[in-house]
């Protein structure tokens, strides 16, 4: 199964992932610019992504804890999610998202 990820400089990448992986892990393991500092423990918000609007219903709403973490970033939008909270499954095959500036390992130029 695949996800389509646009990075912070606008390049689109098609990444292969496995069922049950966190979307954050797929992005990180393919070497894209995502910090994911806490490794998926929902305590950093540096795995912040914008889910393509056409996928919002499939992905569903964030938990209260996730929303609290998202409130801590300055570039939050209505389609913001933390990618460590999204698990790869058949339903998410083809998921499109964009890496948020605040997920970058270094300050984006
Ligand atoms: S990796 Fe830290 S909240 Fe997702």
From TrEMBL:
Gene3D superfamilies on file: 3.10.20.30
A GO biological process held by the record: P450-containing electron transport chain
Entry GO MF terms: 2 iron, 2 sulfur cluster binding; electron transfer activity; metal ion binding
Residue ranges annotated for the 2Fe-2S ferredoxin-type domain, each copy included: 1-103
Keyword set includes Secreted: no
Pfam family, one: Fer2
CDD domains membership: fer2
Cofactor section: [2Fe-2S] cluster
SUPFAM superfamilies per the UniProt record, alphabetical: 2Fe-2S ferredoxin-like
Domain of life where this protein originates: Bacteria
Matching InterPro entries: 2Fe-2S_ferredoxin-like_sf, 2Fe-2S_ferredoxin-type, Adrenodoxin-like, Adrenodoxin_Fe-S_BS, Beta-grasp_dom_sf
UniProt keyword annotations, A-Z: 2Fe-2S, Iron, Iron-sulfur, Metal-binding
Family: Belongs to the adrenodoxin/putidaredoxin family.
Protein name: Ferredoxin
């Amino acid at each position: 199964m695949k996800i389509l990820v646009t990075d912070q400089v606008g390049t689109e990448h098609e990444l292969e992932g496995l069922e049950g992986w966190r979307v954050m892990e797929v992005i990180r393991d393919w070497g894209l610019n995502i910090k994911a500092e806490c490794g998926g423990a929902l305590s950093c918000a540096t795995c912040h992504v914008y889910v393509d609007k056409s996928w919002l219903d499939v992905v569903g709403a964030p938990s209260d804890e996730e929303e609290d973490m998202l409130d801590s970033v300055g570039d939050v939008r209505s389609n913001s999610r933390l990618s460590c909270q999204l698990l790869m499954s058949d339903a998410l095959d083809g998921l499109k998202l964009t890496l948020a500036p605040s997920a970058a390992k270094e300050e984006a130029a």
